[in-house]
Amino acid sequence: MGNEKKTYTGFYSEQELKELGISKIGKNVLISNKCSIYQADMMEMGDNVRIDDFCILIGKIKLGSNIHIGAFCHLSGGAGIVMNDYSGLSQRCSLYTQSDDYSGRSMTNPTIPEKFKEVQSGEIVIGRHVIIGSSSVILPGVSIGEGASVGAMSLVNRSLEAWTMNAGIPCRAIRRREKDILKLEKEYEKEYR
User: Does residue 19 form part of some domain?
Assistant: First the structure.
């Protein structure tokens, strides 16, 4: 009972993670074997990343360290998604870096050639210590500043300021968020890094 390595059932093994072809992968990465990953060669993951069951990850996605992605999340990284250290997505969040035009001036859906469509596209950047509540939707081109929080079932269609608490459809700032987690981060890093 000394130095045995922990085995987690339900997660890809280290060897299986390498075989997925993720371009860069850190230590202690736990990805559910019920997670669907497409274009893995465009993805990077830092240390201490956990991705739960039934998530779908597609395209250019860069995850920092100490990241959690809850079950049933969908990350569509065509234009790029960056999640910085200590950020997380609760269950059923959807991040879209590309969206069809809903006005009727162009055709829609992935079966139609690009020349018949007007696609809005933009990278999504999630700052350090950001937490996104369950069933929230993040649209193309949004940046969420460090330490911001997003309440459950919110529609984030514009960028959010750092250290704010936000919620709603569309999402709006409610009040300032405390910064105590920065002190806790330093304590954590002293102990675990």
Answer: no
Whether the link from the prior residue into 170 is cis, omega within 30° of 0, is: yes
Return d(Cα 143, Cα 175) in angstroms, integer: 18
In a domain, 104, yes or no: yes
Distance of alpha carbon 43 from alpha carbon 138, whole angstroms: 19
| 27-52 tens-digit pLDDT | 999 999 999 999 999 999 999 999 99
- CATH code assigned at 120: 2.160.10.10
pTM given for the model: 0.93
Say if 67 falls within a structural domain: yes
Domain that holds residue 72: 35-192
Q: Is residue 15 situated within a structural domain?
A: no
Tokens representing residue 79 in the block: 């234009």
DSSP 8-state class, residue 107:
B
Q: How many domains does the chain have?
A: 1
pLDDT digits (tens, 9 = 90+) for 145-176: 999 999 999 999 999 999 999 999 999 999 99
**DSSP string of 31-78, one letter each residue:** EBTT-EEESGGGEEE-SSEEE-TT-EEEEEEEE-SSEEE-TT-EEEEE
Please work out, in degrees rounded to the nearest 5, the angle formed at the alpha carbon of residue 47 by the alpha carbons of 159 and 142: 10
